[in-house]
Amino acid sequence: MSLAPSAMPSHSRSTFAPALSAASSSAAATACTNSMKLAGWSNRRLAMLTIAVPVSETSVSDATSEVSAGAGGVLLFGSKAPSDLGSRLTTLKSHVPGHLGLLVMTDEEGGGIQRMANLVGSLPWPAYMGAHWTPAQIQQNVTKVAKKMAAAQVNMDLAPVVDVDGRNMAPSKTNPDGWRSFSGNTSVVSKAGVAYMNGLRAGGVIPVVKHFPGLGGSTYNSDFGPARTLPWSTLQKVGIPPFTAAIKAGAPAIMVSNNIVPGLGTNPASLSPTAISSELRGKMGFKGLVVTDSLSAKAISAAGFSVPAAAVQALRSGADMVMFDLGGNVGSQTSSIATAITNAVTGGHLSRSRLIDAAGHVLAVRHVNLCS
Questions:
Q1: DSSP letter, residue 32
Q2: 297 neighbors 285 (Cβ within 8 angstroms)
Q3: What is the model's pTM?
């Protein structure tokens, strides 16, 4: 015999109501977040999400196994993109576990540093833009390029360079900037950098502002050996304002350089908790994605770190995503990095909460919601 609601015993009614309200309040208290979802992932899968895998733009399928294993991004190398790059990248993205998307990044700065100008159109060196174009013209021209990048399934540009460097020369072994910098004038760089960043965003591409805390006036190019920036006290006046302007304008991602910063410790900035956690995150309030410059740089090995060890130190210092160069066996290098990260968590050298935080930043920059 079924019990009609009106005939429900009085003691049943009184015990059900509080239980229901308790359940609803506990549901509200445990509203789903990406961090909660990521806490259920294995250390290995979290580690893979923090790695950008290098691949030639003419053979992006080479990264299929790393993408299938959960790599957070791929970094395209080359100087001429195939006409069907978009469809090749669409195929590559289909291998992402859970179809959570993929950061497909490249260096499309302008001038001599363009990977796919044949597909997306050419930009002049930033030094030319800074000297001859208004911020509105920079934004407009960059948007045109960005729209074509996005159409080719490239969703992240490792640009703009907001280093303040007025030296009239091509970038070289001794000077990483030269014409890659908009100007030697801090104010010009701040305005041009924000314009370039906004141009990319308007075209559907995620900008990565670089190279924190500023390479202008560096002693050397860190790709080729140990390098130092200007002293921190000088950088705060000259090199930091363009980063501050970019953060204020909503910069989604910042790349940290491999230069030692006199006054901020003896490690390269990309491996320095003082540079990343204390200054960039803490004092400057940056909440977005922090990526390293290439950990294959000679400045990193000169500081005593292998690429996997540097990846662990970068994550410990507050970086969210690590990069390395194309060359050698990319598959085994990727695996070595992921293993070093997982071993660091297991061994207590890297907190699991820091790894979850890093993975969360990688997802957030792509607007991935694990709860939807």
A1: -
A2: no
A3: 0.92
